[in-house]
Amino acid sequence: MKPALTVASLQQCAAAFAGAESARGEPTLFGVTDGKAVGTYLEQKFRQQVAARYSFEEGSSAKGIDFPGIGVDIKTTSIRQPQSSCPFKSARQKIYGLGYSLLVFVYDKTDDHSARVAKLDVQHVIFVESHRTGDFQMTRALRRIVEEEGNLDDLIAFMHDRLLPVDEIEAQKLAEEIMRGPPEQGYLTISNALQWRLQYRRVIERAGEVNGVIRVR
User: Fold this and answer.
1) For the whole model, what pTM was predicted?
2) pLDDT, tens digit, for every residue of 117-126?
């Protein structure tokens, strides 16, 4: 029987995987410029290595994340434009977080033309705990409004000013929830779209300095 996967063992696997991948060349990715193809390669290979050592609940399109049993999703992104897409469930995610943690691999890809292999230098592996996955500017401003004795109308006006995708009823419910319990400070940048667009530059900069934003490697 393989041991059950935990967040700690996932992080250990991620650190070892990043080191091994950074040290080798990959011929199948030589000349590939599609970031999605590179990300898929890294994610699938990492999942296979984790599955070889640990038992875990398989992710699915319905569950929407890679490791639903421990509430973690994998994201891979190039250091040149550190961002990825994410399913949109509700506007509440931008305030109270995505509802799960992120394991983010940030790589720099170069091609070795003499050996005809791609080199994937995994420069950062960062674990963003669920409570830190809200939008930085949105959570900071909403927390400040509450701290400065703002009321429901102030919160609703701010959400509409920032074009948060909510109707009047949703905005009212969110404002009431924020008054009862303001969100934790988030560290992602989340852009409105049909899918959320997550940007990771801030978590790369702040990893290891902020509780809940962990530098794995």
Assistant:
1) 0.93
2) 999 999 999 9
